């Protein structure tokens, strides 16, 4: 599967100035991609309005991105589009792309960017699966008194002297050095695509009027799995031409990393589809108060190649849950109950749910229950496969449902 790249530039172009800070990297990714779409920001069509052809580089609609179907989103210059901290592409949109097997790389989140948007990056850490380290007043950063370019905060990092996750090392194959400008120390991460030099890097903590330094390799980059795809967070300035003109290997490293993560995500998708081995159809039963969450989770389930039936979509006012499950029973593979406090006292819980459970068990179909809050489960569902879904996003919920179906299938073999 070829790369289809959405490249989001640092800033909109204005007064004849190009908003793309990393023109060399953009050109490299475009050369490696089947198609490459360039913009500064992605917005819903209602906000983007009618776009002038001259502004195609500035803003594209979410609908256009949906049609383009990128499997790589590269964001240069950090995650945010303006001083208010608006995302260049909204969380649910990018999470859906990644969950289905896409790759997101957020680059150039060095100390100036993190200082400017501290609270925003702390909030985004849950999605990025990586968190920058802060003291009370500032960002914890890295320096190197031996291996640097123009000053000690522009670290020349040598792959042979890095702390790396083995599966990510091929992205740096045959590369002697890369530069990391204004790198910040991460306090949490999953996999390591790069780091500072093991023997010469220092971590510097701003403390009041002074600073405290200790010898330690700086962890400034992270890769984390999200659904079937990957999210990479680079807390250093790495992609702009000001770096790549002097250190051209930066361009090759970032493009290699994008391709490596894309291939791994494609393998994840293939393994996921092979592991199911049969058509998967989930019946999703829920209260109307949870409809928006369940509907978005159903869309995410479908995007992963499975089918989802929502009782609220299919029931007529005179229908019952028993009737609808009976109509779809021949093609159902799993019954899922979304349980929350809103279910307490609902007439169908006492009147219909026991009968539905009996019908499903009679057909030897798995029962699953996704708890949306801490409300105790009904006795009817006590033996169901339980998913603790408190606080999950729709994409995380869909991934958990698919994973649970796979686990149940494996255990039944």
Summarize the structure in words.
Helix content is 33%, strand content 23%. The protein is α/β, with parallel strands linked by helices and 413 residues long. It folds into two domains: 271 residues, Rossmann fold (3-Layer(aba) Sandwich), CATH 3.40.50; 136 residues, Rossmann fold, CATH 3.40.50. α1 packs parallel to α8 and α11 packs parallel to α13. The two termini are 31 Å apart.
Offer a quick outline of the entry.
Helices cover 33% and strands 23% of the residues. It is α/β, with parallel strands linked by helices and 413 residues long.
Architecture blueprint of SSEs:
Elements: E1 3-8, H1 23-32, E2 33-39, E3 41-43, H2 45-48, E4 59-61, H3 62-68, E5 72-75, H4 91-99, E6 103-106, H5 111-116, H6 118-128, E7 131-132, E8 141-144, E9 154-157, E10 178-181, E11 186-188, E12 201-207, E13 210-215, E14 221-226, E15 229-234, H7 241-244, H8 249-276, E16 281-285, H9 291-303, E17 307-310, H10 311-314, H11 321-328, E18 334-339, H12 347-351, H13 353-362, E19 367-371, E20 385-388, H14 394-412
Helix pairs in contact: 1-8, 9-14, 11-13
Question: Which terms summarize this structure?
Answer:
413 residues; alpha/beta; Rossmann fold; six-stranded mixed β-sheet; five-stranded parallel β-sheet; 20 strands; 33% helix
């Amino acid at each position: 599967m070829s790369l289809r790249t959405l490249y989001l530039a640092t800033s909109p172009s204005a007064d004849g100035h190009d908003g793309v800070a990393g023109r060399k990297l953009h050109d490299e990714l475009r050369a490696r991609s089947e198609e490459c779409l360039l913009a500064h920001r992605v917005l819903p069509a209602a906000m983007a309005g009618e776009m002038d052809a001259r502004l195609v580089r500035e803003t594209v609609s979410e609908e256009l991105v949906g049609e383009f179907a990128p499997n790589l989103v590269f964001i240069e210059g950090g995650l945010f589009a303006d001083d208010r901290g608006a995302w260049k592409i909204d969380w649910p949109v990018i999470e859906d792309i990644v969950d289905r097997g896409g790759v997101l790389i957020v680059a150039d989140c060095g100390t100036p960017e993190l200082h400017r948007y501290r609270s925003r990056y702390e909030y985004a850490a849950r999605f990025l699966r990586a968190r920058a380290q802060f003291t009370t007043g500032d960002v914890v950063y890295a320096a190197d008194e031996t291996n640097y370019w123009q000053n000690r905060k522009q670290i020349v990092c040598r792959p042979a002297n890095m702390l790396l996750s083995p599966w990510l090392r091929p992205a740096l194959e045959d590369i002697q050095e890369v530069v990391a400008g204004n790198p910040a120390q991460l306090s949490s991460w999953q996999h390591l695509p790069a780091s500072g030099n093991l023997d010469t890097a220092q971590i510097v903590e701003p403390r009041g009027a002074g600073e405290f330094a200790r010898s330690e390799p700086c962890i400034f980059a992270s890769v984390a799995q999200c659904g079937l795809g990957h999210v990479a967070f680079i807390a250093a300035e790495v992609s702009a031409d000001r770096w790549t003109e002097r250190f051209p290997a930066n361009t090759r490293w970032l493009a290699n990393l994008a391709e490596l993560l894309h291939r791994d995500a494609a393998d994840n998708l293939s393994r996921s589809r092979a592991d199911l081995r049969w058509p998967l159809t989930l019946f999703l039963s829920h209260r109307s108060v949870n409809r928006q969450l369940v509907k978005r989770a159903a869309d995410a389930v479908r995007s992963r190649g499975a089918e989802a039936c929502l009782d609220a979509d299919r029931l007529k006012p005179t229908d019952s849950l028993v009737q609808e499950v009976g109509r779809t029973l021949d093609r159902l593979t799993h019954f899922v109950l979304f349980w929350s406090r809103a279910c307490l006292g609902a007439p169908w819980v006492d009147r219909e749910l026991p009968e539905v459970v009996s019908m499903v068990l009679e057909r030897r179909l798995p029962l699953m229950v996704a708890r949306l809050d801490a409300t105790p489960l009904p006795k009817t569902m006590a033996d169901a496969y339980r998913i603790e879904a408190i606080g999950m996003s729709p994409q995380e919920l869909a991934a958990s449902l698919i994973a649970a179906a796979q686990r149940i299938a494996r255990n039944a073999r």
